């Protein structure tokens, strides 16, 4: 997996370099799926487990931004006996293809804790995540954490000092269309409003350099995460179910008019 990831990172760096050769004025970014990982408690081993989890999950950002692998990852490779094929040409490409800004998605936060059967505190996303009792969850078990978006913005800014761009943020839910075609998705409004409010705090109070915000997504579509149509994110309802039945007719949800006001006021009206 790590070898494949290396090839992807080299290809990305070469794409950045090619874009600048085409137009030196272009600003080129990366895309990171951000789910901050909290320690379940203030126990020192839980803190170290959370630190290692963030290392394992976000080293991609180090390579995109700094053009080289972080030392903690190289040490991890050595400890696990992973010998990646990394050429001098690859290293040069990574160094020359650093991004100008960080784009990222944010939907939820994670939590982790140390366990007796993992004395090295190695993070494995299939086993190391635990439920956070301090946040609510969606129908799909995604932890709803608006403050986590503010934390994520600050985490990225503290680590990299590059402009940030929230390119995905949304709430997947089972929407019920009424007989008149309307959908009362107040839960989506509540989710997005709370997240945008925390985003504003990160900019106004914390000084984070944020380029912009785009929600996921404007119209219902098949969920990339679960392959389901019933997991809906849009402001516009699409008449199609998981089996492909439906007319594809579109109707505006309650959140449509709400978000229209949000963007019309540049976020002042939430």
Automatic annotation (TrEMBL):
One MF term in the entry's GO annotations: 6-phospho-beta-glucosidase activity
Cellular-component GO terms for this entry: cytosol
Broad EC category: hydrolase
EC numbers on record: 3.2.1.86
SUPFAM superfamilies: (Trans)glycosidases
PROSITE patterns hit by this protein: GLYCOSYL_HYDROL_F1_1
This protein's UniProt keywords: Glycosidase, Hydrolase
Active site: 168
Any single Pfam family the record assigns to this protein: Glyco_hydro_1
GO biological process entries: carbohydrate catabolic process
Protein family membership: Belongs to the glycosyl hydrolase 1 family.
Listed name of the protein: 6-phospho-beta-glucosidase BglA
Source organism: Raoultella terrigena (Klebsiella terrigena)
